[in-house]
Design goal:
The protein has 16 helices and four strands. It has about 400 residues and is mainly alpha-helical. The protein folds into two domains: about 1-45 and about 190-399, no CATH class; about 55-175, 3-Layer(aba) Sandwich (abc type-2 transporter like fold). It has a four-stranded mixed β-sheet with strand order 2-1-3-4, with helices on both faces. Helix 9 runs antiparallel to helix 13 (about 300-310) and helix 15 runs antiparallel to helix 16 (about 360-399).
Length: about 400
């Protein structure tokens, strides 16, 4: 208490006072440090493998010949799929898919080898659960790749049996070869783009709601607002001192998340490190000012926290990670545009996976800076309007 008393009114005094709030109110420490690190630990454990491999599928083999067994071996050898169960009918296969034990069923028709030798076109059918987009598409990709390889070998064998040289037969099978070069995330490592997007999304919710809680405690009543203004030597110096401890804590949490991503998951950093740090700082500040504005404009504090959760909780759906933003409705697209996390993820992906030149990454940084400025100005206007309104009310009471 003597240390506080020796400080003159200003941001530093409020800063020291707010640090003491972490000890006085353990919920603040839980919200700002314990909860985000706990959630990040859970998400990191979920995506610890990075790649989805060896997804189980079942096989219904109605042929039983050498060709059908070669198809099964080829499908099982792909990195995406693993043949784990043989079924005797489609009813059993359907039950396995519905139960979640397998993600697809490969049905090889009867007389497959005979029909292929006779020049017919028998159909190998693959049933998969399209509702689970990721696992369904991965199993379909693995089966298609395996069957394409088997089909190419069959065509090559048929041509060479007829006396065509191997080189000419192979060239005739693919007269226009396609060279495919996957960019930015060629291994489809989910920790490099999905986990890297989930962690800031979770942090965005926590920053907005925690700031709404911290600021709301002081601005909820006139008495506490006057105390805050007196301690800071003015309202905005007081607000700066109040928000700074949380800014430092959230930057620490974001730094821990990046340490995990770059250190443990080996996410590449192909861009400018300082640009990434600046984007993170603006991301934290924009979310803090959003929470502060909600606390000032929406009273009581519980209302501000509730609205903050409502705005940020579905944010991940509108950021363009799981679904492209260009395909969204105008409402969803506009929602994403107004969220700081959308622009931070743009800058983050540019500076990590893509290695975008610095001049092309200024736009998301400029938008984040504009958000900080606009939210600060709106919050200041709201506080000034409240102050003028209270003064008028006091004069009316006196008169």
């Amino acid at each position: 208490m003597q240390g506080k008393a020796s400080l003159r009114p200003g941001p530093l005094l409020v800063f020291v006072r707010e640090l003491g709030q972490f000890r006085k109110y353990p919920v603040l420490l839980a919200l700002t440090v314990v909860l985000p690190l706990f959630l990040m630990g859970i998400l990191s454990s979920v995506f610890s493998q990075g790649l989805v491999t060896r997804l189980p599928i079942a096989v219904l083999n109605l042929d039983g010949g050498d060709l059908s067994r070669a198809i099964i071996r080829t499908v099982d050898a792909t990195p995406d799929t693993a043949v784990t169960i043989n079924v005797s009918n489609l009813g059993e296969a359907r039950r396995l898919i519905l139960s979640g034990r397998v993600h697809g069923v490969l049905m090889i028709p009867d007389n497959l080898e005979r029909d292929v030798a006779a020049g017919r076109r028998p159909e190998v059918v693959f049933f998969y659960n399209a509702q689970t987009l990721t696992t369904g598409n991965l199993t379909l990709r693995g089966v298609n790749a395996a069957l394409a390889g088997v089909e190419g070998n069959i065509r090559l064998s048929l041509r060479t049996v007829r006396g065509q040289p191997v080189d000419i037969a192979r060239a005739s099978l693919s007269p226009i070869p396609v060279q495919t070069n996957p960019l930015f995330n060629p291994t489809l490592n989910y920790s490099h783009f999905l986990l890297a997007a989930l962690l800031p999304s979770v942090l965005q919710i926590i920053v907005v709601t925690t700031t709404a809680y911290a600021v709301g405690r002081d601005v909820e009543t006139r008495h506490r607002l006057r105390v805050l203004r007196r301690l800071g030597g003015g309202l905005w110096p007081a607000m700066a001192g109040k928000l700074l401890p949380y800014t430092l804590v959230f930057l620490f949490v974001l730094g821990i998340a990046d340490l995990v991503l770059f250190g443990w998951f080996k996410m590449p950093l192909r861009g400018d490190r300082l640009l990434l740090i600046l984007a993170g700082l603006l991301f934290i500040l924009a979310n803090q000012m959003l929470g502060a504005f909600l606390a000032v404009a929406l009273r009581p504090m519980a209302t501000a926290i509730g609205i903050g959760s409502l705005i940020t909780a579905p944010a991940f759906s509108f950021m363009g990670i799981g679904f492209p933003r260009l395909g969204m409705t105008p409402f969803a697209y506009s929602w994403g545009e107004m969220l700081p996390g959308t622009w931070y993820l743009t800058a983050r992906i540019d500076q990590t996976l893509r290695g975008t030149p610095t001049d092309l990454s200024f736009r998301p940084l400029a938008v984040l800076l504009l958000m900080v400025a606009v939210l600060t100005a709106v919050t200041a206007f709201w506080l000034e309007r409240d102050r003028v309104h209270r003064q008028r009310s006091a004069l009316e009471v006196v008169s």
